[in-house]
Amino acid sequence: MIVSIIALASCYSSEPADEWRNLFNGSDISNWIVKINHHPVGDNYGETFRVEEGMIKVRYDHYKKFDGQFGHLYYKSPFSKFHLSLEYQFIGQVRDDAPANTALNSGVMFHAQDPRTMNVDQGWPICVEMQFLAELEDGQPRPTGNMCSPGTEILFNGKRYESHCLDSSSPSYKPGTWVKADLIVLGDSLITHLINGDTVLQYSKPTIGGGSVEEYNTSEWQPGKALKSGFIALQSEGQPINFRNIKIRLLE
Q: For the 3-keto-alpha-glucoside-1,2-lyase/3-keto-2-hydroxy-glucal hydratase domain, which residue ranges apply (predicted)?
């Protein structure tokens, strides 16, 4: 199966551009929905998500204090089987009053619950995350394209994975580097993470369960439910980051 999905990913990456659809139009976020912790859906507090120079920029310069205001920018409609491609770049410094583990840390969420079902004080959606990291000042290896599971569980090597995050096999990248991330999702079946064209992680069978999500709407909490589709969202955790070239190819 690993060999076949690598071949599949290679095939998708070589398809004509007209088979892809841009999720970000380069000029505004009118097709996206903002949800920031402690704020109602649609309130882009502090202009956290802004469009400049053809990029979606995540910034905090209008915040008086961070105060756990984790945020996400959701594309307006859900997807099930797809190939998502984007580029990201970490810049600047994490806010001093944000959690230390959010330094050079962001990601893209998928199979996420509808942001309109989230409570005002819910920091993260129930979802799976392709986590993005960059190298810290200590120079220690810090792979990117990892998996994190807020309110979800996965199978890895055919077994239930017990921890919240799972490291990929990618190299480390320094802040300021543009990194290309690809995510191939086959419903609730095989999921593949690629960084700069290389397959770095595979897992399967995401379901609702586990921890790392609080203040959720209890009607959305259905442990054991297979996650076959959901929303895609860009993350805001206190670290400035840029996103560009966000596109999707449906695999129905």
A: 19-249
